[in-house]
Amino acid sequence: MNSSIQSIRYLILTGLLSSFLCSVFAQKPGRKAELMAYYCEPCNNACDLERHDGPGACKHCGMPFVKRSVALMDSLRRGRKNQSSET
Ligand SMILES: [Zn+2]
Ligand SMILES: [Zn+2]
């Protein structure tokens, strides 16, 4: 009797533990993580706002890529478009 109760307890405990661990690990990635991408250093060329998937150097201006927030660069791109539309 006692041993069967203990084994049930053990099952409940391990079940709780694994669900707890799952929730911890599930929360870690992506939580409030900003979308990042690689962009070349600002040099006032159009390529500055081009998004790249990995590190390297820009084919156009030769500047090394730096990791930046995609949201930030998209807002910069919008601002630049407005500027260039003036004639
Ligand atoms: Zn550049
Ligand atoms: Zn560039």
Can you tag this structure with a few keywords?
rod-shaped, two-stranded antiparallel sheet, mainly alpha, 2 helices
Compact description:
With 87 residues, the protein is mainly α.
Please write out the topology.
Elements: H1 2-27, E1 36-40, E2 65-69, H2 70-84
Antiparallel strand pairs: 1-2
Write a structural description.
The structure is a single chain. The chain has two domains: 1-30; 36-84, no CATH class. Strands 1-2 form a two-stranded antiparallel ribbon. By secondary structure, the protein is mainly alpha-helical. The protein has helices at 2-27, 70-84; strands spanning 36-40, 65-69. It is 47% helix and 11% strand. It contains two helices and two strands, in the order αββα. The structure holds zinc ion (2 copies). Residues 40-41, 43, 45, 47-48, 58, 61, 63 line the site of one zinc ion.
Helix content range:
40-55%
Radius of gyration: 25 Å
Distance between the termini: 88 Å
What's the SSE pattern?
HEEH
Number of domains: 2
Please tally the β strands and state the result. 2
Strand content: 5-15%
Helix count, DSSP H or I runs of 4 or more residues: 2
Report the uncertain regions. none
Derived structural class: mainly alpha
Main sheet specs = 2 strands, antiparallel
Ligands present? zinc ion
Strand line-up across the major sheet:
1-2
Q: What is the approximate shape?
A: rod-shaped
Whole-number mean pLDDT: 82
